[in-house]
Amino acid sequence: MAKYLVQVIVLGAQVVTRAFTRAVRQEFAASQAAAQARGTGRAAQESAAASSLAGMSLQEAKQILNVTSMDPVDIHKNYEHLFKVNDKSVGGSFYLQSKIVRAKERLDEEVRIDEAEKSSKDVN
């Protein structure tokens, strides 16, 4: 009986080890693909740092302000509208207003990074 119990335990450990190894490989591949998609330049590093500091990803900021492009005029227009609509004096939410402000700050930082990258490419 003990022999079968040991075999079951060993077999179970092998299955778990294989599954864990496969999961680590998949996560590593996904991480590499994400790094390739982001790029490897200074702008990508600055964008990642901005996401970390703002506590908000670029995608989330775009969704909050309902913009698809990084056009500063569209960003500002949507920001102004959403900020006024969510003003506490008209029954809005301070929490939503703060999310809107953080989203605009995140997008403004991304626009700044994009402009800096373009100007550095123009110099070269």
TrEMBL record:
Keyword flag Cytoplasm: no
Q: In the UniProt record, does the keyword Mitochondrion occur? A: yes
Any one cellular-component term (Gene Ontology): PAM complex, Tim23 associated import motor
Record key words, sorted: Membrane, Mitochondrion, Mitochondrion inner membrane, Protein transport, Translocation, Transport
Q: What is its main location?
A: mitochondrion
Q: How does it sit in the membrane?
A: Peripheral membrane protein
Locations listed in the record: Mitochondrion inner membrane
Extract one GO BP annotation from the record. Answer: protein import into mitochondrial matrix
Could you tell me the superkingdom of the organism this chain comes from? Eukaryota
Q: Which family does it belong to?
A: Belongs to the TIM16/PAM16 family.
Protein name per Swiss-Prot or TrEMBL: Presequence translocase associated motor 16
Task: Please give the organism.
Answer: Eptatretus burgeri
